[in-house]
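Researcher: We plan to redesign the surface later, but first we want a full-length starting point. Tokens attached.
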């Protein structure tokens, strides 16, 4: 009930703030006219006093009376016009005041008809006290925050809310929560990894020194966890040590299970690091190691075919960026022939010859090599 009383008073005050200036215009016009007329009357009386005492002549007095009379007549005319104008505007002012009154009345009526004025309020304390299963994520976080304000040494609470903060992109609060959890509950690989991720997210994706230290602590606590290793390799790549980053990523692939969700990301990052290293150094891409070959032998036929497809596509992409690699073009042509993609092999041959130069010895060797593979229509 108090809410409706306050709302009504605020509505009345806002309406009066608009209505009162509209209703005062006519009184202001009339008041100004009466003041001018009173001044002219005083001037006539003063002329009469001066003439009776002989201070001015009768002719001068008559001229002064005539001039003041003309001013009074002019005032009457303009005053009448102003009054008429005010009367003409009375309808406009009336409509404006009616609109000011009608808008809140209509709003109240519509809300009463279509709104929910009888719905009880939902204070935050009551919402936090309801069943957690029916609470939103914001309400659950608010509940946890209220609990931690009352119990700042509850390490379990900090441990629970820290990754939630990270998913909500509240990275500063996430880092604080992870630090509190580590301080109260002790070291663990997930806590140090989470702290590193929060610090990295706060730096816009850059693995800072503090984040790298957190990942190193996590990797030491749980060598089987791929996350800190991946981020440490990312740190090396960001520092420009692409060879070391590629080596760490390749070592990760040797230990990751085939069904690990990290494999695609590690493979993609390794390909990017290798390609960037080759672009900077101009070196040819290294072939598969013996470990790679053993790993490929353990794959199913379908998985092995997918692996080969990826390797060939990466080689093709690298040659588009660095076409002055005669040995690379031969490997690419042979790969497409083995995959029975004859048209792609012909296309790779044509691109290789054009890149190496039609009249060069390397182009002629590439053409002869393609002919040995059965591309009989290859032209020397």
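Model: Full-length starting sequence:
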């Amino acid at each position: 009930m108090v809410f409706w009383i306050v709302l009504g008073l605020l509505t009345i005050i806002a309406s009066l703030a608009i209505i009162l200036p509209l209703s005062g215009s006519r009184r202001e016009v009339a008041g100004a006219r009466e003041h001018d007329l009173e001044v002219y009357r005083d001037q006539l009386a003063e002329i009469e006093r001066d003439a009776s005492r002989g201070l001015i002549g009768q002719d001068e007095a008559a001229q002064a009376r005539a001039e003041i009379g003309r001013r009074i007549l002019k005032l009457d005319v303009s005053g009448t016009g102003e009054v008429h104008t005010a009367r003409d505007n009375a309808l406009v002012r009336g409509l404006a005041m009616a609109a000011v009154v009608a808008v809140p009345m209509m709003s109240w009526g519509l809300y009463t008809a279509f709104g929910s004025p009888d719905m009880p309020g939902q204070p935050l304390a009551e919402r936090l006290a309801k069943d957690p299963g029916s609470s939103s994520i914001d309400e659950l976080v608010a509940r946890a925050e209220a609990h931690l304000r009352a119990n700042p040494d509850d390490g379990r609470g900090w441990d629970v809310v820290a990754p939630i903060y990270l998913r909500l992109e509240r990275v500063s609060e996430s880092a604080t929560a992870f630090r509190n959890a580590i301080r109260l509950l002790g070291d663990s690989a997930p806590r140090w990894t989470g702290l590193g991720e929060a610090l990295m997210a706060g730096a816009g994706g850059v693995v800072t020194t503090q984040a790298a230290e957190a990942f190193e602590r996590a990797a030491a606590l749980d060598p089987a966890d791929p996350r800190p290793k991946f981020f440490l390799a990312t740190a090396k790549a960001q520092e420009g040590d692409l060879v070391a980053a590629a080596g760490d990523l390749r070592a990760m692939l040797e230990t990751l299970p085939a069904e690990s969700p990290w494999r695609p990301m590690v493979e993609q990052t390794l390909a990017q690091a290798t390609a960037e290293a080759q672009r900077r150094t101009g070196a040819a891409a290294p072939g598969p190691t013996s470990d790679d070959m053993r790993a490929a032998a353990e794959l199913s036929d379908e998985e092995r075919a997918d692996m080969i497809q990826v390797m060939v596509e990466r080689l093709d992409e690298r040659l588009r960026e660095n076409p002055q690699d005669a040995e690379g073009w031969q490997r690419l042509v042979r790969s497409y022939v083995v995959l029975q993609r004859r048209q792609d092999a012909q296309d790779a041959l044509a691109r290789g010859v054009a890149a190496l130069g039609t009249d060069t010895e390397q182009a002629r060797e590439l053409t002869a090599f393609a002919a040995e593979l059965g591309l009989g229509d290859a032209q020397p």
